[in-house]
Design brief:
The protein contains 13 helices and 6 strands. With 353 residues, it is mostly helical.
């Protein structure tokens, strides 16, 4: 990384940091807030009236720096349009509390949109060595004059992005939690981008985009850390997952690295879906059962929980730089076993109370 990359990162940080207070003022003015006294949302941990719409300053920083500093092509255009739509959906949700089913349908539509602009997963890394090709089945359709449809690759791309949008968004319940681990993940993907790239985007552009994303969320963090002055909102959370999913694709299909760095949010999301289905509840309906909720139940403060998420992401990010494919899988399984053991123990302890 050179001085130009550092300058880009600093500009993204400054824009997000300085536009967040403006967003806080506007969110209060237009009623984009959450009031714990009147909103009985089962997953919220905050007290008082907190502005939402946190995705706005983050997107402003990403949009400005991308237009000014990146080599714009059809994929970058698709990413910026799709991310902008997620912010708009987030604002609507902040105001009207959209149905989770409607949001999920919109997630799928946005993932389809960015795929139509040329994003795809032609292959994935095989943890046992080599790659697994996904581009063997092709449907010759010229959509927007962009490219043919890669049936398996595009279906997996859509599913991956929809999953990332929801999985990452679920891990924003504690002040400062989400922007911290998102920044760390984006920075590690920036390092990976200097090694590999798998699309019609050069490695430098992917690295710069990763730095822009990480720095924008880092600029938002001081306003979101305890005691938070603004929440990421659905726009900030879903856009984080979307952009990390995109960066994993662009960084030579490094899904294993992204999943490893995001091990806690990933395992928490998988367990949450299974738990809700087992309890005959909708997997889309929020509840007090995420990992950060369990840490609150055992007496952890919000600062400690957020820093814990950051440190685990940082350690797993460093491990991802050193370990090979099968070794990453082993570490992920070990983290999963530890996390599930904690969940089971706290579940039993809570039932005995």
């Amino acid at each position: 990384m050179d001085i130009f990359a550092f300058i880009i990162a600093m500009i993204a940080f400054v824009i997000a940091y300085t536009t967040t207070p403006i967003t806080i003022f506007l969110a209060k003015k237009f009623g984009l807030v959450t009031d714990s006294a009147s909103d009985s949302h089962p997953a919220h941990t905050h007290q008082g009236i907190i502005p939402r719409a946190g995705g706005v300053p983050i997107y402003v920083a990403i949009l400005f720096c991308s237009i000014v500093f990146l080599d714009i092509n059809k994929i970058i255009v698709g990413i910026l349009i799709a991310a902008g739509l997620l912010v708009i959906i987030g604002l609507l949700d902040d105001k009207y509390d959209l149905s989770p089913y409607m949001r999920f349908i919109m997630n799928i539509a946005i993932a389809v949109l960015v795929v139509l602009f040329g994003l795809g997963i032609p292959f994935v890394s095989n943890p046992f060595g080599g790659v697994i090709p996904l581009d063997e089945w092709t449907l010759s359709l010229n959509i927007f004059g962009i490219r043919n449809i890669l049936i398996i690759a595009d279906i997996i791309s859509i599913a991956w992005l929809a999953w990332m949008m929801n999985m990452v968004n679920w891990s924003k319940g504690v002040d400062g939690q989400l922007p911290g681990f998102v920044s760390i993940t984006a920075f590690f993907l920036a390092i990976l981008a200097t090694r590999f790239t798998a699309h019609d985007i050069d490695a430098t552009t992917v690295m710069h985009l990763s730095l822009i994303v990480g720095s924008a969320y880092l600029g938002f963090l001081p306003h979101n850390f305890f005691p938070q002055k603004i929440m990421p909102g659905y726009g900030g959370g879903a856009m984080a997952g979307f952009l990390l999913g995109i960066l994993a694709i662009l960084s030579f299909g490094k899904f294993g690295t992204a999943v490893l760095v995001l091990a806690i949010p990933t395992i928490d999301a998988v367990y949450t879906v299974i738990r809700r289905i087992h309890q005959k509840k909708s997997p889309f309906r929020a509840d007090w059962g995420h990992f950060h909720h369990r840490l609150i139940d055992i007496g952890w403060g919000k600062r400690r929980i957020a820093v814990f998420y950051w440190l685990v992401s940082l350690m797993l990010g460093i491990a991802s730089m050193i370990l090979e494919g099968i070794e990453k899988l082993v570490i992920f399984i070990m983290v999963g076993i530890a996390l599930l053991s904690f969940i089971i123990i706290t579940d039993r302890a809570k039932k005995l109370q």
